[in-house]
Amino acid sequence: MTSNHEFKQVPNVDNVLIHNVIFELQQFLHQEVNIIETELSRTRVIVEEAVVDISSSFKDLQSLTINQQTLIQNGVENNAKIINKLAGISPKIAHAASKGVRSLQFEDLVRQSLESLEANIKSIHEVSDVLSDFEHDKKTPVHDQLVTLKERCQQIYHQTKEAEDARRVKQLTMDEGEIDLF
User: What is d(CA 119, CA 153) in angstroms, rounded to the nearest whole number?
Assistant: First the structure.
């Protein structure tokens, strides 16, 4: 038969185990947040480089266009030479425009990915806050706290899922596609 003293010790052991698990979860979440923040920093650098690349592409396009206009304005006498030069410039213009479009697509993909990562970091912080509340709330029964924790985690999951589903661009490669300007 179990004594009343032994029965009262069991919840204390459960509380210690629960607090240990919460502490380990918090440590894990902090590590994950640090990893995500590092990835965000790296992605921001990539976006900055992409913006420079876009600017360069459009400057190349402008330069090629000015060269083409200059050729026409100078009224070069030999039409065959003009046609050959224009034919040589045309693929360069197409390439520069294509490069600019890919850069814009990349920037849009990265921006949306950054927004998604930031939302995920916010969700992780929210879970961490709930875990912290769980650890410090000694008045509410453990079962009720676990139910609250489960419900909050489900809310965060659904919010994250809805945000992911709402993303406009879900492109996984930088292959060219159609362009919608407006």
Answer: 14
CA 5 to chain CA centroid, Å, is 54
Token pair 């992409």 in the structure block, residue: 50
Query: How many alpha carbons fall within 13 Å on the CB side of residue 145?
Result: 19
pTM of the model: 0.48
State how far the Cα of 181 lies from the Cα of 109, in Å rounded to an integer: 16
CB atoms within 10 A of CB 100: 18
- pLDDT tens-digit readout, 59-103: 887 887 888 777 766 665 566 676 777 777 878 777 777 877 887
